[in-house]
Amino acid sequence: MTGDPLYLDGVDLTDLGIMLIKVLVAFTFLLVATMFMVWFERKLISDMQNRIGPNVAGPWGLLQTFADGVKFFFKEDLRPENADPLIFRLAPYISAVTAFLSFAVVPIGGSFGGGDSGTVTIFGRETFLQVADPPIGILLLLAMSSIAVYGVMLAGWASGSKYPLIGSVRASAQAISYEAALGMATVVVVVLAGTLSTHGIVAAQSGGVTRWFLISSGIVPFVVFLIAATAELNRPPFDLVEAEQELVGGFHTEYSSIRFALFFLAEFMNVITMSAIMVTLFFGGPAGPILFGMTWFWPTVWFLLKVLAFLFVFVWFRATLPRLRYDQLMHLGWKLLIPLILFWLMFISLKELRAAYDWNWVVTYGSAIVALAVGTALLLAALRAGDRVYREELEDA
Amino acid sequence: MGYLAGFKVTFKKLFEERVTTEYPKEKRPKPPRFHGRHVLNRYEDGMEKCIGCELCAGVCPARCIYVRGADNPETDPVSPGERYGYVYEINYLRCIHCDLCVEACPTEAITESKLFEFSFSNRTDAIYTKDELVVGDDGLPQRQPWELWHEGDDLATSGWMRATAPSGNPDYQNRAGWSGELGYGIRAPEMGQHDRPEQDEAGSNTEEDGHSGASH
Asked: For chain B, which terminus, N or C, has the lower number of CB atoms within 10 Å?
């Protein structure tokens, strides 16, 4: 399987048309989905707090986000005097564009089971149900989430005000810290699938729930990924960057009007994208039973349902968990998640290598346990030393 | 595992009843001692209760009351006694409805009604003058064009005054410590306060006074 079959025999006008349609559909879907994600979040969180939530704009308040967006367009667009004009304008677009681009590599449909290779036929051409399937798909996702940090960082820096700067430094520190755990949880999946292409990863999970990487990677990478993704998205309980109750707003303090809306668009879009990535990496993507007829229809339905479940989980997090302190956030990321996923990555790699080269399993796992013990001892010693320094600093302060 | 127990709590809330009242569409019944806009009461014979002492203006934390007293005209007195409220104005852009003026008033002249839905569109309307505050000849508050009234809102105009009975006890024990109102006479106690039987007025009065004095 090398890339989308659409482009295998040259590119003609029909191929170009199909490509454009896919781009348009993905773009529109993402915009509309973001709009309803905001509504879904507000409605669900009000349900969890015994409130009603938005219910005036449209049936069940469905058009609330639309009304908010229209309002943002008509607001005055302020730019502080000390702001760097170009970068101040650029930053929201970096955030929004990266949010859009990440979704391009997510396969949102196609039947993968029983010899099918996840293709659908549009206008007589076979193609994947995803905008692009680069051989480095997962790397693109990681790259986009890294570049999104620039949006935050530049926004804070270009605002020409100290509070956004401090907020953006905190935000980028948080994003970079958790990107390590996020990336390594992804690498576990890549090791298991043997490919970086998102399509290949989904194909490797086809054939039943037990083949999903959630199970075959031993759940731990998924849990680490979920926690790291929540932190990466700046969502509660890791939303101390823009803690509404405590700060003015973090990196976007100086932003108003549609530029502010772009940041929020990017944020909610990233929630959807991150849910889609989790479904792709750990839950078999569009895998699910084909109930009747229409083989191209059901996988998309299953995909959307799985994404919806994750959106629910993210809102549930927000309704339930209290916000972490900054030091707690850093402790969780560096001292728990990263060592844990490092070990798990080593263990999974070892397992795969043993299977591939037929190593003696006593030697393999024995050395793994020794390495684990040594590693744990070193880590604990380091943590204790770190704690002592930390406490001394507290006493000095 | 404390974190995980929280998830169950929030999930259960999904299926519970909503507590929100969608205000303009549905309205909750108001509590008996609701603090709404003020009225200036009159005695049963039509005399005004206000004596122009300015205690309400003095106690007002928002400084929204302006009172000037004047001597009663000998031929046509406005209130029993020497003085009466010549000017009485309340600025509802400032009033916080704390009811301290009601507590300060020595003659129960100023009380608060349950009317709170009024939206004026200029300063002159926001400042209620004495003509607007004083009750009408039927003892009911005077309705202003910008006020939204509901059935029965104009009847309960002095609940808080009766709540603070002379003994300081929320349950009514002594004989009525409040004066009559135009259109109502001496109002009955509210909110399940027990009215004292009429016949043994003198006997139990001293007895109960003695008890309450000893217990406090």
From this structure: N
